[in-house]
Amino acid sequence: MNNHRSTPIYCATVFYPNKEGIFFDFELYAHTLIPEYVKILGNNVLKFEVRKGLATPGAPSPGFICIANVWVTSAEAFGASMADPEMKILMQKISAFTEIQPIRQFDQVIAP
What is the spatial distance between Cα 63 and Cα 52, in angstroms, rounded to a whole number? Predict the structure, then answer.
């Protein structure tokens, strides 16, 4: 099996650490804020997903209450989108909707 990609794919990930007593509006985040984010990124987006951390019975609470992934084809286009004035406004809305300080990461996907 050949996992080598002829063109790179990148993934922007946002992790929201799980904290006791903090409210996270999944409906707003998953159905309004992330779709707005994807719209600004435009045709660069391959796919996106938002995941809700759940406790496994008998195990500790999940480390993250929410994880969002957005797969894109161009790191350069992603960077340019982040400088878009619409993105700056959206980032303010995203920052204001929860008290949780997110952890952001940008990766190159090296295997499916």
Answer: 11
